[in-house]
From TrEMBL:
Residues 106-329 form the Pterin-binding domain. This is Pterin binding enzyme. One of its GO terms (biological process) is pteridine-containing compound metabolic process. PROSITE patterns: PTERIN_BINDING (PS50972). Pfam families: DUF6513 (PF20123), Pterin_bind (PF00809).
Amino acid sequence: MSIAPILFVTGKLAEPALREQLEQLAPVAGFDYVVQVMPITVAALLTTDWVSRRIEAPGPISRVVLPGYCGGDLAPVEQAIQAPVERGPRDLRRLPEYFGQTSSRSEDYGRYDIEIVAEINHAPRLTLAQILQKADALRADGADLIDVGCDPGGGWSGVGECVRALKSEGHRVSIDSLTPSEIAPAVAAGAELVLSVNSSNRHAAADWGCEVVAIPDDPRDLESLVATAEHLEAVGAAYRLDPILEPIGCGFAASLGRYIEIRRRFPHAEMMMGIGNLTELTDVDSAGVNVLLLGVCQELSIRSVLTTQVINWARTSVRECDLGRRLVYHAVARQTPPKHLEPLLVLLRDPQVSEFGAARLEQLATQIRDQNYRLFAEPDGLHLLNATTHLSDEDPFRLFDALLQTEPKNLDAAHAFYLGYELAKASIARTLKKDYRQDEALEWGYLTEPETSHRLSSKPVQSKPNN
C-alpha cells in the first residue's frame, strides 16, 4: 500500500525553487509530493488562519508542510485539510536536513568514553567564589572533573578549603601539583585524582589513597615514566600514564609516538593526554585541534584528557571536547570517517553553501510585486531586489549608495539600519564562504546565537495577500 503524498504550501516567489528542491529530494527521502501555490508573493508573510481558508488538497495526503515562517496556530489548517500539519524549515534549502538526508548519525549517536578533566589555572590567585563560578561553567560545558591548578613551588594553604568547597557543590575534583605537602590536604578534602607523579614525589603516592597521573621526569625520557609506573604498581597505587604531549616545534610528532609506544608496552593501562599543550600554544582556533587529538585518544584507548581554556582562541575548549568525544567515539566504533555527523563543530565555514545563480535571481526579480528588499549573497556579489530594483555589487557600501541613487520611498532610518545590518551579515558570509539567509543568524556551529526576524515581525512594507 503506497503512502499518500505530502502537500507542500508555498508562495509564488518560492515556487520554482521549491519544485526544484523537491524533485531532487523526494526520490532520495522516499516520499511523493504535491505543491499548492498560495496567491501571495512572499510565503514568509503567510499566517495559518489565512492559509486555512484557501488550502486545498488534490486528493488524499499524508500531511501538510507549511513554510517555516508561517505564523499562528496550526489547528485551523488541520481542521480545514483533515491531515497533520507541520512547519518546515524557514529556508527551503534546508529541506534535505529536515527530512534527515544530511547526517550519517545512528540512533545511539552521542555515546562517549573519554573523560574531560578541565583545569582552573592558577587557582591560588583566585577567590573561592571565582573558583566555584569557573567550576560551574566548566561542568555546564561538559567537564567531568574540575582540576585545581596550583602554582609552581607549592605552599598554598587554602587548597583543602578549595577542594572541600568544590566537593560540597557536587564537583568531582583533581589536584594539579607536584608538591606532597600541597597534595595531601587536597586528597584529604576529597580530591580523587592527583596530577602529577614522577620520581620526585612518587614515594608519597601510596599514602594518598587515590588515583594518580604518572608522567616522565623529562618528556623525552620514556624510561623514567616506565620506572614510575613500575613503582606505583609495586605499592598498589592506581595510576594513569601520560607521556606528555609537546607543542609543535618542540617535539610534537615524537611525543605522539611516545603515546603509541606506551600503549604498546601497557596495553591495558589507563592513560591521559594533556591536550592543552597544543591548543593553548598554537595560533589556530582550538576546535579542529581538539577533535584531532581526541581522535588520537580514541584510537589509542586514552580515556581521559586534560584541557585548559585560558587563551582566547581556546576559551571554549571544554565544550569542543564534549562535542568532539562523541564524534570520535562514533567514528571509531563504526569504523567510519567523522563526516556529516556533528554540524555544531563546523564553525568558520558551513558544510555547504547554497547559490541561487544569475538566472534564478533574474526570474525572482520579475516576480516580485512589493517593495520589501530581498538580499542574496552570491559568488559574483551581493544582490538587492524588490519590485522596482535589482542592484548588485561586491561592496556593500557601493550597493547601498546605488540604492540611495534610486531615491527609494520606503527607506526610513529604521529600514536603513536593518539593511545595513543584513548587508554586513551577507558580506561576512561571502568572505567566509558561509550560507546567508536573510533575517536569520549566520551559522557558527555551537556558537550560533539565534536572531529574531525584526523585518518579518514588524513587516514595515507588507505585501498584502491577493484574494
